[in-house]
């Protein structure tokens, strides 16, 4: 493997890491999270999150008939119990 190929591989890895950091920063600046984002953030499965929302254990906002937003505060409050 040439030095140029190694450099390209390293550059690719750095770009991926930067993209991951940018995504995390964007998520941190949001008021709420989609169910998918909340699952990734909390480690709770999407099905379980839907159950928790339906039971009233986690507050959420119904944005459209198909879209729910969980506020970060509601998710953190649940996780800290």
Automatic annotation (TrEMBL):
InterPro entries: HTH_17, SinI_DNA-bd, Tn1545/Tn916_Xis
Gene3D superfamilies recorded: 3.90.105.50
Superkingdom assignment: Bacteria
Domain Helix-turn-helix: 33-81
One of the record's GO molecular function terms: DNA binding
NCBIfam families linked to this entry: excise (TIGR01764)
Full protein name: DNA binding domain, excisionase family
């Amino acid at each position: 493997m040439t030095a140029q190929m190694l450099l390209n591989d390293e550059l690719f890895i750095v770009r991926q890491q930067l993209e991951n950091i940018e995504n995390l920063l964007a998520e941190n600046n949001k008021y709420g999270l989609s169910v998918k984002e909340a699952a990734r953030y909390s480690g709770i499965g999407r099905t379980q999150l839907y159950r928790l929302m339906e039971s009233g254990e986690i507050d959420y906002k119904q944005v459209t008939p198909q879209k729910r937003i969980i506020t970060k505060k509601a998710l953190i409050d649940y996780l800290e119990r």
